[in-house]
Amino acid sequence: MTRSTVMERLAILADAAKYDASCASSGTTRRNSRDGRGLGSTEGMGICHAYAPDGRCISLLKLLLTNHCIFDCHYCINRKSSNVQRARFTPQEVVDITLSFYRRNYIEGLFLSSGIVKSSNQTMEQLIEVARILREEHDFRGYIHLKTIPEADPELIAQAGLWADRVSINVELPTESGLARLAPDKNGPRIESAMGSVSTAIEDAKDAQKRFRKAPRFAPAGQSTQMIVGADAASDAQIVGKASTLYDKFALRRVYYSAFSPIPEASAVLPLKRPPLMREHRLYQSDWLMRFYGFAPGEVQQATDADGMLPLDIDPKLAWALKFRERFPVDLNRAPREDLLRVPGLGAKAVSALLAARRHRTIRLEDLARLTVSVKKLRPFVVAADWRPTLLTDRADLRARLAPPATQMELFA
C-alpha cells in the first residue's frame, strides 16, 4: 500500500476535526479554483475561525494528529468500529504544516486534537511534542489550543498547559448514564478530575506570576469543554445544570455545545436524525444569560417546559419573562441594572447605554428605538416617560404576538 501524501492526509484529518465545536468556525459556500479559473478557495484543509482571549477573530489550523482510535464511542465517526479512511501525522509533520501555513499568512495558530492510538499517554506525549517543538525549537508565538486526554497521566496534562495557550477536555455528554451508554471507555469522574487538575494549575500559575516576574505561564487562555446535544435523552434543563456546575467548579472560559450529527454506519443506540440546530442555539443563549445577564441556573431552567426543554420558537429570556410577568413592567428611568438586563430584547450594551443616558435626560420610547433592533418585543415589559403597557403585559395571547411568524418551508429545498 502506497504512503498517502501530506495533502491527502491533511484532507482526511482536517475533515475529521470538524466535529469538535470547541473551536468555532464560520460557515460559507464551498468554492475552489482547481479548474484553473478564479482565485482562492473556501474548502477544507482545516482552517477555521476562533476568538482569542482579547476578542480578536483569528484563523487556526484545526486538525487531528490521527483519526485512529482504540475507543469505541458510539457517537464518534472515528470510533474503533467505524469504517472510515484512516490517516496519521507525525508530530514533526504537524509542526512543518503549521509553520508552512503560518508563513503564508493562512493562519495565526493551531487547534490540535487526536484519536487515541496505543494508549492515552502515548498519544498525549505526541500532542505535547508538537507544541514543544513549535515553542522551543521555532520560537512560535502564535495561538495554540491543545485538546487533552483525561485518561492520560496528570503530569502529561500539566505539561500541555505549559506550551499551549488554551487546553480543553471534553465532557462529551451531560449525564453519567449517557456517558456510560454511549462512551463506555470514558469515565465521568476521571474527566472531572483532569479538569480540576488543570483548573488548579491555572490558579497556581496566576498566583506565582504575582510573586515572581518570570514565573512560567500555564494555559493563559484558560480551559474549555464541549457537550454533545441530542445524542442521549438529556434535557436542556440537565444540560444547563451541568454547564453551570462546570463553570463553578473549574472556572471554565467556555462550554461549547455541539448538536449531534448522524454519522455513516451509525450505532443502533443513536438517534436516527439530528436535533434541531435551533436547540443548540437556545443553549448558547441560555449560557449567555448565566454568564453575562445575572441569571441563576435555576432561573434559566424555569424557562423550560414540562419536559425540561427550552422553547425553539422564542429565546430563553423571553420564555422566562412570560412565565414571571409579575416582575414586569420595568421602569427604564428608575430600575437597577440587574432588572434591566432581564428585559427581553435588551442586551448588555444597550443596558449600559441606557444607564449612561438617563443620567442626563429622561428616557422615552424613541430613545429605546435607537438602541435595539425592534421595540415590539420590549413594549410589554417596560415603562418609559411616554409609554406604559397597561394591560398589554398580562394579555393571554402575548406569546403569540411576540413569537416570530410561522414560515412555509420549501418541499424540495
From TrEMBL:
Domain of life: Bacteria
Keyword S-adenosyl-L-methionine appears in the UniProt entry: yes
Phylogenetic placement of the source organism: Bacteria, Pseudomonadati, Pseudomonadota, Alphaproteobacteria, Sphingomonadales
Cofactor: [4Fe-4S] cluster
Domain (Elp3/MiaA/NifB-like radical SAM core): residue spans on this chain: 59-286
Keywords: Iron, Iron-sulfur, Metal-binding, S-adenosyl-L-methionine
Organism name: Novosphingobium soli
A Pfam family the protein falls into: Radical_SAM
Protein's name according to its UniProt entry: DNA modification/repair radical SAM protein
InterPro entries given in the database record: Aldolase_TIM, DNA_rSAM_put, Elp3/MiaA/NifB-like_rSAM, Endo/Exo/Phosphatase_dom_1, rSAM, rSAM_sf, RuvA_2-like
